[in-house]
């Protein structure tokens, strides 16, 4: 028994040290970003950021980079990024939750075939479909005489369309863990499918919905390609402003560090606020 206890103690110690090492490795880039953003440009250009760790008292700390980043239009870009990200996160969730409910609890002809085709769309890379999507957007705005390109709505549509397959897949897998006896009992009590969805299935599926919301929010928040092509420079997002801070010859990376640290605060708060749903929502659908 004592031997087993020693082995168990060593295993726990090894696991703890491994996790600690992973935390340190994953934290180093963020730490370097923070230290770089708080150093003077003249110091950052001649010495690496870790020199400030070994000699913190001898380092001249400055917030000039943050002032430059904020004065360059980061606040306006922050508002534009919220305007793109929030609807592009909510819209696919609204549609995907209804679709996942239908794929899970409703019976209709060709359900499995349609679901398989939908899941297969996840392998289509965004870059490969970008030109056809853009041409389709131009054709659509000519057909309905509504300006789409260069607006937030075009980014919402594209982000939502590419997020839909993964959203349906994650939420459906989670809904499969809901006992069918609950649905049958609700039907016996006279509840409609619509009422069952809103009153029973949707609240129970919140962990999966929150998990995908984190994925989608982070993806859209950090996106540059879709925002640049479909929204344009008229309403620049944070990623575009970071590129501008870099400068034509890459001389502004000191300011980029400050801008990048500003831009990661919101995703960090979103993740911390929803993290209790994150693992539960991803793992619950793997075992029924």
How would you explain this protein's 3D organization?
With 288 residues, the protein is an all-alpha fold. The chain folds into two domains: 1-62; 63-286, MetI-like (MetI-like fold), CATH 1.10.3720.10. The chain is 77% helix and 0% strand. The protein is built from 14 helices and no strands. It has helices spanning 2-37, 41-44, 51-54, 64-105, 111-120, 126-144, 152-175, 180-188, 193-204, 206-221, 225-231, 238-246, 253-263, 265-283. α7 (152-175) packs across α11 (225-231) and α12 (238-246) runs antiparallel to α13 (253-263). The two termini are 36 Å apart. The model has no long low-confidence stretch (mean pLDDT 83).
How many separate structural domains? 2
Largest sheet: none
Helix/sheet category? mainly alpha
Average pLDDT: 83
CATH topology of the largest domain: MetI-like fold
Give the CATH class of the largest domain: Mainly Alpha
* Count of beta strands: 0
CATH level-two architecture of the largest domain: Orthogonal Bundle
Instruction: Work out the helicity level.
Output: over 70%
Could you give me the name of the CATH homologous superfamily of the largest domain? MetI-like
Q: Please provide the ordered H/E string of secondary-structure elements.
A: HHHHHHHHHHHHHH
User: What is the overall silhouette?
Assistant: flat
- N- and C-termini, Cα separation: 36 Å
From the alpha-carbon coordinates, what is the Rg to the nearest angstrom?
Answer: 24 Å
